[in-house]
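TICKET: design request
STATUS: open
ATTACHED STRUCTURE:
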């Protein structure tokens, strides 16, 4: 079940379209060139989570691509229409905490050749059941070289490395490569050996220290200037973890930091926190610590908005 709502000046709350009927021109540059941007967020009990962070990142992506997308009000109205229509057409079953969840995708393309205006829409769908499995059972991950060094984002902004563009064919190819090797997911590294991100996730790691004094819990993520997407989940979790007494740290990180960690996660808005069981076959921490820290941080993330 997919609900589509197009942003359309003639329809202030958005125009609902039948997802089973073609709705884009074949000349739309989102299709012919992958030229466009998107956001994926979770609506919980009808309310979109971290919506300002997602709209802020959408605006930043639009600026990187010089794309003139509709303003926040139009997106918020279309999101409300899509989530409401999805809930009436296909009420989601409550999750283990009694909440109902809907995946909301915001998409804006450069529009048809020559039209000069973007095509923008919101899509509402169900949460894939595999994600709860990943949270519960964890992931086998492989490291893959992304082929760029960690300073390329500043040197070559036209690579759009920090923008959430529709050109995800490379990310999907990396995931297929991992699946063909029997792994579940990927952590990209730069050509100069820094840890970056997953194809659809940010990387977090925890280091626990207990050297006789008060135990220290440190949550670390790769530096945001290394050509990675600034994750809204990582951002929200860092704020919540800091308030709960965690120390925060930012890379540069190398693969040895991951292998030494007490726990590593791939995090994103729909998957939330999925613990990494192993990287290139080496176990990360212990099952007991991974499960305990995943539960602690998942509870913190659930309190964020
Ligand atoms: C490349 C990449 N990095 C990080 C993320 C995590 O971002 P967020 O936490 O905002 O969902 C995503 C999400 O899809 C992504 O595609």
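STATUS: resolved
RESOLUTION: sequence designed for all positions
ATTACHED SEQUENCE:
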């Amino acid at each position: 079940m997919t609900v589509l709502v197009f942003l359309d000046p003639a329809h202030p709350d958005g125009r609902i379209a039948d997802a089973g009927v073609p709705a884009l021109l074949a000349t739309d540059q989102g299709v012919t060139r992958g030229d466009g941007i998107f956001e994926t967020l979770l609506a919980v009990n009808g309310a979109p989570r971290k919506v300002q962070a997602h709209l802020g990142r959408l605006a930043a992506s639009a600026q990187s691509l010089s794309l003139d997308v509709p303003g926040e009000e139009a997106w918020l109205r279309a999101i409300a229409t899509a989530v409401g229509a999805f809930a009436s057409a296909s009420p989601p079953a409550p999750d283990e905490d009694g909440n109902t969840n809907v995946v909301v995708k915001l998409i804006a393309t450069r529009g048809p050749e020559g039209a000069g205006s973007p095509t923008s829409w919101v899509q509402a769908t169900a949460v894939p059941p595999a994600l709860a499995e990943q949270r519960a059972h964890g992931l086998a991950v492989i490291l893959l070289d992304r082929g760029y060094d960690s300073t390329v984002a500043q040197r070559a902004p036209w690579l759009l490395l920090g923008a959430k563009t529709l050109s995800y064919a490379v990310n999907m190819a990396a995931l297929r490569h991992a699946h063909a090797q029997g792994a579940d997911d990927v952590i990209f590294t730069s050509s100069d050996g820094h840890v970056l991100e997953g194809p659809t996730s940010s990387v977090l790691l925890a280091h626990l220290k207990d050297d006789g004094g008060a135990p220290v819990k440190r949550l670390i993520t790769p530096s945001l200037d290394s050509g990675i997407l600034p994750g809204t989940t990582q951002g929200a979790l860092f704020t919540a973890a800091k308030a709960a007494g965690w120390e925060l740290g930012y890379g540069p990180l190398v693969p040895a930091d991951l292998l030494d960690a007490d726990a590593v996660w791939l995090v994103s808005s729909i998957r939330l926190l999925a613990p990494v069981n192993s990287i290139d076959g080496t176990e990360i921490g212990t099952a007991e610590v991974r499960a305990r820290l995943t539960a602690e941080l998942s509870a913190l993330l659930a309190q964020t908005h």
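CLOSING REMARK: The pocket of pyridoxal-5'-phosphate is lined by residues 40, 197, 200-202, 229, 231-234, 267-269 (CB under 6 Å). The chain is about 30% helix and 30% strand.
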